[in-house]
Amino acid sequence: MDKHCAVPWLPVDGESIRFNDWNISYENSQMLKSICKQGNIKCCDKDDVGRCELCLYQHSLDLPHLPDMVFHKNKLVMQHKDGALMAFKSMDALALVDNRKQQQPLEVVIHVRSRQ
Q1: Beta-carbon contacts of residue 81 (< 8 Å; ≥ 6 apart)
Q2: 37: phi then psi, degrees, rounded to nearest 5
Q3: Which of 22, 28, 113, 115 sits in a 20 to 30 Å window from 65, CA-based?
């Protein structure tokens, strides 16, 4: 790509505030790229440790397709002074999306004998 028309990379933005015994911080960044670093035709190998972030998401999540916009580095972290920590990240949230490939839920039948 020509240097004169390249899109500049913006630094990750974030902020942290203290609320009582909690430290609340966030980080946000740009959207996940929609094209693999290898181009439109080919994707990174699933086992390649140097795979691009798009392929990491596609292989890890195993969804039919990714959402149109994924802010993959955004996160919200709440940490208590005593050590409790809650972190919300896009990969964790997307991992909970039903990919329609899971088996049906396990059904448990309980038989209760009545005393006579």
Answers
A1: 21, 22, 23
A2: -65, -15
A3: 28
What is this structure's pTM?
0.60
d(CA 74, CA 8): 19
Counting beta carbons within 10 angstroms of the beta carbon of residue 51, is it exposed (0 to 12), middle (13 to 18) or buried (19 or more)? buried
Residues 6 or more apart whose Cβ sits within 8 Å of residue 76: 24, 25, 26, 87, 88
Phi then psi dihedrals of residue 22, to 5 deg:
-115, 140
Give per-residue pLDDT as tens, 54-107. Answer: 888 887 887 777 888 888 888 999 999 998 999 998 888 888 877 776 565 656
Nearest to 25 by CA among 78, 68, 63, 69: 78
Give the DSSP H/E element, type plus range, for residue 17: strand 13-19
The two beta strands, 22-28 and 85-89, are: unpaired
